[in-house]
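Predict the structure of Fumarylacetoacetate hydrolase.
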Amino acid sequence: MQGAFICKNDLPSDWAEGQFAGRIQSDAGPSPIIIADGVVYDMSPVVPTVSMMLDRLPVDVGQGRRLGPLDAIDLLLLSPVDLQCIKACGVTFALSAIERVIEESARGDAGIAASIRGRLEDKVGASIRAVVPGSPEAAALKAALIDDGLWSQYLEVAIGPDAEVFTKAPVLATVGSGADIGIRSDSTWNNPEPEIVLIVNSRGSPVGATLGNDVNLRDFEGRSALLLGKAKDNNASCAIGPVIRLFDARFTMDDVRSAKVELVVEGLDGYRLEGTSSMAQISRDPLELVSQTLSEHQYPDGFALFLGTLFAPIQDRDEPGRGFTHKVGDRVSISTRRLGRLVNHVVTSRDAAPWTSGLGAFMHNLASRGLLTGTAGTVLA
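Done. Here is the predicted structure for Fumarylacetoacetate hydrolase.
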């Protein structure tokens, strides 16, 4: 399991006032924690998993094991989710829809993307920003684009009635803040995707939010949408963290809707890329995306839902017109004022630490600690 020692500098400035949930790696194994009023509590004596803990909110931290003030202890922080399914929504912003169409039209070739970009933005830029997905106006725009030969499957999910919802990573396969994040070794055009991630419990209720990096391989997905699995799900390709900020009177869904997600990429070659994704420009409300995820499926352990990003980097890194792509060693920092900062370093998925602790190992660890038999006051059903 990859993680880093918890650092208050990676938490929001009001970390001592909010309530946060997460996971730490203890000597005995992974344990759910609550941070309340600046104090960290190990909740494994009460509930064995983060998934179950979020179903029981609000939890009584007095029943947990007090570890101490956050700024006075060293804790190895893991990705804050465990049994939750990892879902993601794509093309939820108008500008990202345009970039996806460019990928598709360029067939994954960054070299010809720039010429397509100008033509497409001239045709649909203003229209696609103003249209409401699934509306009569969206249907009319679709018809016009079909007539112009510019229609795309990406525009279908951008302005049509159905959002794109896919599975990003297997359960327990995410990495936390401070860990390496993986890019396929055979990808030559890729980028980070800085996003807000909603955390939804087993009853379908959003209980909090965190940050995520939905790493994207533009060359793979651009060649064919059927390569989405290879483009999205690779070793260490999904980062979540640093912790889940729980919704309360100080932090609500409106804070998610108004958030500005900042991205900084710093390369060993001296390259620096900065960008911002404004959630105010999202085409579908976060609650609609939750509803569409739940429409024909149940999630008995809850799910984490990436909400998509406005940001698609086109700034040249090496050759003019070739755009941006990652290099090994890049430091990727994703941050918002209310959720803190998620930091990862880029390696290839082949070189990232292998994912070896799956559900079987996790259940065995919990059982060996007596957390599944009632000795900790909990029975996993």
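Confidence is low (pLDDT under 50) at residues 375-379.
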